[in-house]
Amino acid sequence: MRPPITPLAPRKSQYGIDPALVKTRVCELPGMTSVMLKELFPDLPEVIYPGAEGVAAVRRATEKALEKIDMSRIKPEHSVNILASHHGFTLLGGEPYAEMLKTIKDVLEARTGCKNIRLRAGVGLRFRETEEYIKRYGLDEYFQGKAIGVAPVDQGIPIETEIGVLYGIKKIYDADWIVHAHNSDVREVHFHRQVDRAVKPFGMSYARIETRSTYHQNLGPRAANFTARAIFDSPFVQSKFAFASFLTVAPNGIIGVDADDDLYALNDRVTQIGCRYYGKMMTLFGEIDECIAALDFPCPVVYVFSAGVIYANFAGANTDLYDLETPLPAYTWYTEAFYGKAGRPLLEEIPPVNPAIKMCVHNYAWTGYPSAFFSEHIPTVVVGREQAELFNRDPQNLTYMKHAVVAEDTRSAMEFAYKVTGTRKVVIFDGAMGGINVSEPLAELLLRKAPAVSRRVDEELLPKWLRQRGVTPR
Amino acid sequence: MKVVNLLAVVDGEKCRGCKTCERICPVLAIKVESRVAVVDAERCRGCANCEQRCPDLAITMVEREKPLLVKVDVEAVDYDRIVDICRRAKLNPEQLICYCTATRAEEAAAAILQGARTPEEVSYLTGARTGCKVECIQPILRLLEAAGIKPEPPGGGWQWYGRTVTVWEIPEEVKRKYASRGFYFDEDIKILDRVAAAPLQGRSDS
Lengths: 474, 206
Hints:
By secondary structure, chain A is of the alpha/beta class. Chain A has 16 helices and 17 strands. Chain B is of the alpha+beta class.
């Protein structure tokens, strides 16, 4: 068995504990190993990052992708907002995304003569998160002081759409042109269901609270992402949209950069990648019969990831998240809302949280996303009193620790989990690059199940998923 | 219901009176007076919006010596009236409208029946919209509208701008136009209608 892959180091952030308090990573414990994702699915694409060239490969791919973009409408006297989102900075250490942003600026300047190029970086529910990334990756200097984080509570502007007025963040749109700089990583499949994934930030990280609440409360689990399409298609946004540039991502790493001035054409390509490659990983995760899930990555509980699959999606891996005939996965905010006062779902067909997760060991994860649903439904051990106290101080997680217990250290947390659950299968959500850190028994299971999963996705599921989204298979 | 364990505290030396905090506080608990932000400690719901957006990093969240329990007594209101408002808003009385504070539609409806006339008052009384501050403005606006109330956003504030579309209001031509692109509008309406009409479980929250 291979040794574990060294995970990303803990990060200093106001949303997480002091990195010095993270004494042990779960993958360092006895019995842990790793499996390269190409061993599981040999048809996964080749990656440009991680690789020997480092982020230089991302720069080159961005320059190449932008060659086909017509920038003639952007004049030297114009202003351009490059729009970014927090999640890109959590992918493979964040440097690839930062490099793509820097390259877009350089190419724009060189080709248009425009000097007034700003970076506007949107967030999820941690309003200063991109401020932290702007400093970390030197983007404030690179953009000559014109790089800011924006939040959904900042001043808004009304946007007329074909479904009525929705609201965007004013600073997102305060330039002559906008460039949508994003990534194809699937992340919240439970929310967007791989429908218009490439468009989503227009209804989310670029949007005001009214719009985001529309998405999560007004439209329903499979119609939600229409908010993004409605805003993007509005005459106002279309009058400013220059082009999109995406890091294209597969579970095993960055596979390239894709740019287009037709966002829906790019979206169809993103849909193919998401369904084909991530669909296989998610389906394989659904084959896990029992396990301990270990969280060990610098981002909120739901977003820690393993082989490109976030913990929130693993919690729903007992259902097919890509199948749009399934209205409610085991976890979405709609599902969470639909549990009544007795703690049972209001509708019988709402599936339970993935029963394969016998226990969660929360070794290291951040606050800043409402996560009590997870500790309420999955037995959870949090490592360290400091981490427990951090959650108790988070307005979004005031009841997270009501349902969790605290262990002094990683080793004792895992020993407790082994004893109580009786399983030795462990999946570690530590964002290991190119592979997946797991315990040996789980590695064996994944390697055994992967070939049949691959065939099933290729022959049965993928055609259905693409058909449901109106995307022609390549 | 929310246990408010934090309180915003302003550093008068750093504050420049820009009013960002005043414009975004979901319960109108902070106001700039004589060019310095002042917190109404009794009113503050510890959401940290001001701390997170202050451009001068002049606000910190400190632990309260005595946490406040914020809760509207649903039992004190005729439950049939709560059910009526919730159903009009197409919500089940027991469904959560705020994921951070686990506030259910019935509690927000009870707050409205006890006199809340704005989202700010609903938040002040229930704690809803004082966690993430993002996701629950629409159901609060829907409940107010269902009770026949049309609130105005706070003057000059950025707290909220307006109610937006619900899935029941999506025009038929829009549904037809995008029917092949994975948007299941009518199917989601069926699910949401069934949730709204689902039997109540009726046990008190712990």
